[in-house]
Amino acid sequence: MASTSHPISKTSVTEKPLLVSISGYALLVVALVLLAFAGISFLQAHEPTILSVTLFVLSLLIFKGMSVIAPNEAVITTFLGTYMGTMKKSGLRWVNPFYSKQKISLRARNLNGQALKVNDKSGNPIEIAAVVVWQVDDTARATFDVDDYSVFVHIQSEAAVRKLASSYAYDHSEDDHADITLRDSTGLINEYLERELNERLARAGVVVIEARISHLAYAPEIAQAMLQRQQAAAMIAARRQIVDGAVGMVEMALLRLEDKGTVTLDTDRKAALVSNLLIVLCGEKSVSPIVNTSA
Description:
Elements: E1 22-23, H1 25-45, H2 50-64, E2 66-69, E3 73-79, E4 82-87, E5 91-94, E6 100-105, E7 109-112, E8 116-119, E9 125-136, H3 139-144, H4 149-167, H5 186-201, E10 206-218, H6 220-260, H7 267-282
Antiparallel strand pairs: 1-5, 2-5, 3-4, 3-6, 7-9, 8-9, 9-10
Helix pairs in contact: 1-2, 4-5, 6-7
Subcellular location: Membrane
Organism: Aquirhabdus parva
Transmembrane segments: 22-43, 50-70
């Protein structure tokens, strides 16, 4: 399948690490100490003082700059609408308290797509669905280049599955000359789907780990007709194999009779013998043939 290029916008924001970020454990202790001194100062003066208010505000600013980052999680920071960087190191981190912070998951996710009704390359309606395993790779693109990256993944996955289904025939019975079909070339089809999804989702900073077709069938309105055609094709193939084997056995029988000189058969007798043997070998029911070799 010819892949379609989906170039990333020139205004795209690329992920970068946040340089101004420190461990928050020591500052947490400092904030608690400041909060305690602010409380003590307030209790001693029995009214808010400049010292108690200052200590209280400083402790609040330290607390506001704290971020708890779990494994496979990131925090995106912005300041007055400007992207400052992404924190990915897990633990308690502290940044400028005036930065806006947004958490984003880096864990792998599953998208179990619904069955879509699409026309394949031959125009037959089929039902197809895919399972996609994906995760956020570039937090900046996932946050700033698309409105909602989860919805973007869902819609683009459906579009990719529809394009894939319309690019190939369901099986070889639909297109005898096709090298790749949806049913008979599962490995290649999955590779093409994964490649198409990665190209479509690159602008959202999402990478596809695995993509597989989970459901493939003819649409209900033509399923019965297609089943009858497949059964007919299977019956024809079986009959062809039976006839090929029977002809070989008849040829072998005639050669052995002639080589051993058991009987001498003219052309008419050979034709009759061949006819009887084919009836015996190709018939569906048991028969009791009478082979007459006398003059």
